[in-house]
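Table S2 (continued). Query chain:
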Amino acid sequence: MGKCMIIGCGGVASVAIHKCCQNSEVFEGIMIASRTKSKCDALRDKLQPTTKTVIETAQVNADNVDELVTLINSYKPDVVLNLALPYQDLTIMDACLATKTHYVDTANYEPLDTAKFEYKWQWAYREKFEQAGITALLGSGFDPGVTGVFSAYALKHEFDEINYIDILDCNGGDHGYPFATNFNPEINIREVSAKGSYIEDGKWVETEPMEIKRVYNFKGVGKKDMYLLHHEELESLALNIKGIKRIRFFMTFGQSYLTHLKCLENVGMTSIEPIMYEGREIVPLQFLKTVLPDPATLGARTVGKTNIGCIFRGKKDGKDKTYYLYNICDHQECYKEVGSQAISYTTGVPAMIGTMMIMTGQWNRAGVYNIEEFDPDPFMKALNEWGLPWEEDFNPTLVD
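Corresponding output:
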C-alpha cells in the first residue's frame, strides 16, 4: 500500500511500530525517526526479522522544520505519524505542508511555556491543508481518538441526537512504584495539576484541580475514585456531535498518586517556570521527569486492566436512551504482545489504525479534521481486529 514516517520512539511509538509491522499489507515500509537514532535502530533490529514491512531509521530534531522537510523529501512517505511531543505538532505540520504529505497525531498542540492545550493552533491550518490537498487527522489515540470514534458511532447507529457524554478513563493497573506516571511525566503532571473543566450549554465551566470526585464501578477493574479533568476532545466533540448539552471527562487516580503529587506541587517540583540552579536555568518539572521511572519501562511490572469508554445519553425516535461503549485492556497481555503496558497500547493501536484509514483512502478529505468527523465504521471494525475490542452496555450506571 505505501510508506509511513513515524516521528518519535517512546512507549506509544513502540506500540504503533509493532502494529504497523503486523500490518505489512498496508505498511510496506516505515521509517522511525527520532532525536535518538540508537533507540530507533534497536527497535528496527528487534522487529525486522519478524515482518515484511521494510524498516528504516533516521535521526531528526522535530523542532526543526528544515530538518523534517529534508527527511520527508528523501523518504517520500504517504503519511507522517507524529508520536513526538505535543510541543512539536506545529513544526511537523509545517513540514507536511511544505512537502504535501498527510499528517496524523494523537495529542493536540500545547506551547512549552503554558499548560494550555486546545485545538485553535492546529485548526488555524485548515485552509492551508485544504489548498495543499492533504489531510491532517488530529487526535488518533484513545482519548482523544477512540472516544471520538465511539461518539460518532453512537450518533450514527444509536441516537438521533446525543445530549450528554461522560468520558471515563480508568487505569486499574499497579506498577509497584510509590509514584510513577503511565505516560510522559511532563505531559501527565501538567494535565493533572491544571484546573479541571467541562462543557455545559456551549460554555466552559472551570473547576479547581481534582475538585470534582466520583466513585464508579468499572467492569473488569472494580470500584475506583475518578476525578474531573480538562481534556482536549471535549472541545471538538462539543462542535461535532449533534445535540450536545454537556460533556465531562473523568480519570481514575489512587490516593498514593495524589498524595505524592500534592507533595511535589507544594515544594515546587511540578512548576514549569524556569529557576536558576548552580548557575544554569532549569525547569523543575523537566528535572522531575528525569528522576521518575521511564513509563516505557513499566510494562513488565504492571498488572491489572484499563477500562476506557463513553456513556451517552440522548434521544432516539423521540425517546430517552442511554448507551455505554468501552474497551477493557489487560496490561500483562499487552506486554506479552508488544512489550508495553496498556496505557501505551491503547494509544499506539489507534494511532496505527488512523494512519491506516488515511493510507488506504478510507478516510480521504483535504483539510484539518478531528477524528469524529470521519465515518466511524471502518475504524470500529479495525479496533476489533487489531487488539482493542469494544463492548456495549444499553443500561449503564450513570455518573451523577
